[in-house]
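Researcher: Next sequence.
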Amino acid sequence: MLLKHQFSYLLFVLASTAFLTACDPPNKIAHHSKAGLSFFVLGDWGNKGGGAQIPVANEMIAQSAVYHPSMILTVGDNFYEDGVKSLQDEHWQLSYENVYKDLTKKYAWYVALGNHDYRGNVDAELQYHTVNPNWNMPARYYTFVKNISDKVKVRFVVIDSDPYADDYYTDPKYKGVFAGQDTAAQTRWVKETLASSKEQWKIVVGHHPIYCLKPKAGETESLKKAMEPLFKEYGVQAYICGHDHIMQYHTPAGKTAYIISGAGAKPTPKEKPKENFTVFSAGVPAFTAVTMTENELQFSFIDTTGTIVYHNSIKQ
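Model: Next structure:
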């Protein structure tokens, strides 16, 4: 069975290389700095070691010796297909502890919820910190601050984008799972959190995209309506998410950059038509390495060979 997965994965890698944007040639030069804050972004990943999960995880482990990340940031769909059932679910070992190995012991993981997580026991993900203290999800949406330097900080605002997806309320797979989830209250919380933030950098993290290649109808409209005005009003520099299984970077009008890192285990090998706000997309298994200095955020999409398939930066 393992050989079958490996052979399928090899075919996928060979096929997907054709979809890299021609103007962004791959390279293996690590764009990073020892100063500042470094972290990895992983999306759509918990697949019991199947698909591209293990190759992506192994490259994250290898690159941790280069980037020395202070944390791993996940953008949801932590466990396919139907979340976890409990704190004892085999997923915790087969999709997390055994796959990412030392990364689960050495670094803090800050976790966002995805729609597949809602098909399981969300409370178990909230409580897993009691089993592994490096797993951090104190609430369905929450905020935390990291130091970039002695003078400059970044505030992360982790949202729960799932209840904003209108179509889920009529989908039998999500029947009743959003009971008690008040999107108006969450939007007010985001507004209050951003309004009171004194940090020089503000990054919002969620699962569903606001800008992406051909979004699914009924999944993004309410989220965009609620969040985009807040991003503009309070100067959010980046929104980082997953859900769409293609690595993407979008820069629509305004200050906020949109980074999608959703190819942690089940990447989509076929490209979609570019939008006018699309800077880059690639259907390859990958994660994102981020390094922040006082005035700049650098990010790199790194595939399973250690190749940086795309690199760019966002200024303060």
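Model: Residues 35-315 form a domain with the Purple Acid Phosphatase; chain A, domain 2 fold (CATH 3.60.21.10). The chain has eight helices and 14 strands.
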